[in-house]
User: What shape does this take?
Amino acid sequence: MHLRSVAAVLILSCGYACSSGPSAPDDAAYTTELNAARSEKDAAFKAGTDSPVPADKRDAVLPLRYFPVDPNFAVPAALKLSEDRPVFEMPTSTGALRRMQLVGQLQFTLQGQTRSLGAFVEEGTQQIDRLFVPFADLTTGKDTYSAGRYLDIQPTTTGYYTIDFNRAYNPYCAYNASYECPYPPPSNRLDVAVAAGEKVPGA
Assistant: This one.
């Protein structure tokens, strides 16, 4: 399956979390759904012509490694919009700068503490079809990839969301240095261990 199709499946599969604001998922169904999406991603990375994993590394890297699914890492959030969408120049894995605009701050509570993450789009984006949320946490460089991880979140009409860290994924540069991947800005570095989502790739 083409990787764009996989991305569509992953977005659709988080519809309860991304399109209509927070709701309480059925834990068993949620876990089954998420594990199925992960298996589909593995299959696409293994056989897809546009896989980011080099052919000679697929046996070592796949299947991708994850923390166990934990519904406690799917938390309600509210988006506080930026007034003027300031531009950030994010450093990337190739040394280039990626110009991103801050749409707003996703504000949420995790492990009893109020926290926030900036939500971005590429500079000049007119029609927002996803919010890009790069982040790092206390697992970064240990259990998870040293350059941080990403979340993709569909915009809502209500301003209310669910941030689901079980869906956190590695940038493509985690598998292949030829990709250019933005690094999370300092404001998106969480002082908590997010033991959810994708782990550092296998050797």
About this structure: The chain has one domain: 3-188.
